[in-house]
Design goal:
Helix content: over 70%
Largest sheet: none
Number of strands: 0
Number of helices: 2
Shape: elongated
């Protein structure tokens, strides 16, 4: 069973982390957004390439 003291300690840790956080400035936010969008496009592109290979390769070997 989980001890209530452990739960209290975890909640205090979470509160301390939230106290240390800060709002990112504009440049930091824009850089994070650009990197996130680039990664989404890269993952989508690789997924599309894999999809196309899975559709085209079986037809080529028939």
């Amino acid at each position: 069973m989980i001890e209530t003291q452990n739960i209290g300690d975890k909640l205090k840790e979470y509160a301390n982390v939230l106290k240390m956080t800060r709002k990112p400035d504009r440049d930091e936010f824009l850089m994070t957004a650009k990197v996130s969008i680039a990664v989404m496009f890269a993952v989508g592109f690789f997924g599309f390439v894999i999809y196309m290979l899975m559709n085209l390769l079986p037809r080529a070997f028939k």
